[in-house]
């Protein structure tokens, strides 16, 4: 039988799936807060009302979770195709969208498109360093501290 496949089939060196990057970042948040607050990644169906034709098979919710409180705050969703990019961010938080300059109005959710891993990481950094994200993490830490007194 003839083998018609390319001889060099293998994954691209250093290529990571967006969900793997999210999980790493979630674990790093846990390390920074002694696992009081973690970033949790959950597979989801995208919210209804999107003004997009997103038929991508990979969709995830990124939540900031207070482990002792059992409380999670959904920060954003991502969706992407089997080819990994582009990744679409869906942020269902008016304050966060405004802070990041991603305002789209209130009629429907729209997605922010990251065309490659570099842009994906750039958007993640902007979201994670936002005042809204910082306030949520601080509030979860304060609530946890108060519940242990």
Short recap of the structure:
The protein is of the alpha+beta class and 149 residues long.
Topology:
Blueprint: H1 18-32, E1 37-43, E2 58-66, E3 71-80, E4 87-90, H2 94-100, E5 111-114, H3 117-128, H4 131-147
Antiparallel strand pairs: 1-2, 2-3, 3-4, 4-5
Structural notes for this entry:
It contains four helices and five strands; from the N terminus they run αββββαβαα. The mean pLDDT is 86. By secondary structure, it is an alpha+beta fold. The protein has one domain (18-147). The radius of gyration is 18 Å and the shape is elongated.
Task: Write a concise keyword list for the protein shown above.
4 helices, 23% strand, elongated
The proportion of strand residues reads: 15-25%
Helical/strand content category: alpha+beta
Number of strands: 5
Overall tally of structural domains = 1
Overall geometry comes to elongated
What are the low-pLDDT stretches, counting only 5+ consecutive residues below 50?
A: none
| Largest sheet features | 5 strands, antiparallel
The number of helices is: 4
Q: How are the strands ordered across the major sheet?
A: 1-2-3-4-5
Order of helices and strands: HEEEEHEHH
Average pLDDT score: 86
Radius of gyration: 18 Å
Helix content: 25-40%
The CA-CA distance between the termini, in Å, is 71 Å
């Amino acid at each position: 039988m003839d083998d018609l496949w390319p001889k060099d089939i293998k994954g691209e060196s250093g290529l990571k799936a967006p969900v793997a990057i999210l999980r790493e970042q979630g674990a790093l948040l846990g390390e920074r807060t002694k696992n009081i607050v973690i970033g949790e990644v959950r597979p989801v169906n995208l919210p209804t009302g999107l003004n997009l034709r997103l038929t991508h098979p990979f969709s995830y919710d990124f939540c900031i979770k207070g482990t002792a409180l059992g409380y999670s705050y959904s920060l954003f969703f991502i969706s992407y195709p089997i080819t990994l990019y582009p990744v679409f961010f869906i942020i269902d938080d008016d304050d966060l969208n405004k802070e990041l300059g991603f305002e789209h109005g209130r009629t429907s959710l729209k997605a922010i498109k990251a065309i490659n891993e570099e842009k994906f990481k750039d958007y993640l950094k902007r979201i994670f360093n936002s005042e809204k994200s910082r306030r949520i993490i601080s509030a979860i830490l304060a609530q946890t501290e108060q519940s242990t007194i």
